[in-house]
Amino acid sequence: MAGEAEQTPTSYIQHHLQNLVYAEDGVRGAQATDGFWSLNLDTFLTSLTLGLIITVLFWLGTRKATAGVPGKWQAFVEIMLEFVDRQARDTYHGSSRLVTPIAITLFFWILLMNMLKFIPADFFAVPLSMVGVNYWKPVPTADVNATLGISISVFFLMLFFALRAKGLGGFSKEFLTAPFGKWMMPFNLILNIVEWVSKPISLAMRLFGNMFGGEIVFLLIWVLGGAGLIGMLGGAVFGFGWMIFHLLVIPLQAFIFMMLSIVYLSLSEDAH
Questions:
Q1: What average pLDDT does range 245-257 have in this prediction?
Q2: What pLDDT does 96 receive?
Q3: From the candidates 11, 172, 198, 202, which is the catalytic residue?
Q4: Which of 111, 147, 153, 209 is placed for a possible disulfide with 254 were both Cys, Cβ 3.0 to 4.6 Å?
């Protein structure tokens, strides 16, 4: 990063928390006036790349699958897929075969995006600054646009599952009459709108809050590591402890997002 030696700790952290944005006036760092139609290029490209990587890795694990003694990668893929499939089957009680593929996609894609938190931000920023890219926020799930995008996709899947199970008439009737009956239709409508909208928002904010907060703490630890010998030792100790803690947080957040999504899909098919 150009001029990083002259940066204060505050400007260093603020710099690393800015996205690389494509807006009407070109590609630059994020600003408060970017507007709705700006695109966070770092989030988009990183998410797309990690999605392709996990697809290729799983394809390699199943391409030469054998009924005999599996290889190490095939065995790992089978264990992970069986774990997710078991969780999906235990939680979802409908008849759709899409639930397990949805759960697999959500869990492993979010897990891979979360795992970028283990890589210090300067490992991305310094090489990219050498080629003229001065802003790059590496963890996609620390961007609320990414988590909202995934949760909105889950929201549309909830609508699809509900309409497939109940039909348009049954879904509309339940939306207007549950839980207080047809004489309380306005209150039912307001209550159901709040319930449906709150689900994707809570999904997105929970994941974003944990990842964004963790990233700020990591950046504070890196700043501490640059404050002389004592700061370097303290940064190493705190950084190691925070990383150990995130060994649990990172897969847990992916698991929670996946499980809540499956629960919401299952509830959307159930009668009130």
A1: 89
A2: 82
A3: 202
A4: 111
In angstroms, the CA 18 to CA 135 distance is 6
Q: Where are the domains of the chain?
A: 4-162+198-269
Question: Residue 4: is its pLDDT beyond 70?
Answer: no
How many other CB atoms are found less than 10 A from the CB of residue 158? Answer: 20
Q: What is the DSSP string of 26-72?
A: EEEE--TT--TT-EEHHHHHHHHHHHHHHHHHHHHHHHT--SSS--H
Tell me what the mean pLDDT of segment 152-175 comes to.
91
At 131, the pLDDT band (50, 70, 90 cuts) reads confident
- b/e per residue, 31-57, with b = 16+ CB within 10 A? eeebeeebebbbbbebbeebbeebeee
- Torsion, CA 28, CA 33, CA 37, CA 40, rounded to 10: 40
pTM of the model: 0.86
Q: Name the residue among 45, 12, 258, 8 with its Cα closest to residue 143.
A: 45
Q: Is 210 a catalytic residue?
A: yes
CA separation for the pair 94, 245 (Å, rounded): 36
Cα–Cα distance for residue pair 70/60, rounded to 1 Å = 13
Is-catalytic flag, 206? yes
Q: What angle do CA 88, 259, 86 make, to 5 degrees?
A: 25
The pair of structure tokens assigned to 106 is 């959500």
Give me the torsion for CA of 203, 205, 206, 211, rounded to 10°: 130
Q: Which amino acid is at 203?
A: L
CA-based nearest residue to 42, from 113, 150, 135: 135
Token pair in block for residue 144? 């609320």
Catalytic residue among 28, 96, 134, 206: 206
